[in-house]
Amino acid sequence: METKNIMIVGVGGQGSLLASKLLGHLLLNEGYDVKVSEVHGMSQRGGSVVTYVRFGDRVYSPVVDKGEADFIVSFEILETARWLPYLKQDGQIVTNTQQIAPMPVITGAATYPEQLVEKIKSKGIKIDAMDCLTLAREAGSPKAVNIVLLGRLSHYFGIREEAWQEAMTAVVPPKFLELNRKAFALGKNFA
After folding, report:
1. What's the pLDDT tens digit per position in 12-44?
2. pTM of the predicted model, to two decimals?
3. Which CATH class is domain 4-131+158-172?
């Protein structure tokens, strides 16, 4: 199998590291060689955060270059736009439509771009956009956006449901497991 590349992008504190850990665990259990690389911006200050997950028969480098990402999983729509150059020609975006204003918008030096999903679609890019924050709240916690996104990402993989559940059991603390199972199901079954 050729190497597949996933980028998980967002803003610090949204749970992208747990998402990459869960994804890495899942793919290792499925028998793939997996490399996960965490690149932090000013994550403690709400800055941009990106994690690379690469898997296949043999993976030599943990980094995804421009034009190589098969999937971009994004926790915030402006981060989706920021990382678009990394998406392959036929790649797939799975994104939360939530908007988190970056510092230039907060200070009034810039305005938040409007209609980003529509602008991305108009370029012929495959984008699966949904309000993950509302679904996470429905599951029981706004912090479950990461698992809602993974549930939606699972829609694009031929990996059996039980494997995802086993990875969640291994990675998610027991007291949050039921909440995360519900968040995963809401993302996976989103119409």
Report:
1. 667 788 899 999 999 999 999 999 987 655 545
2. 0.92
3. alpha beta
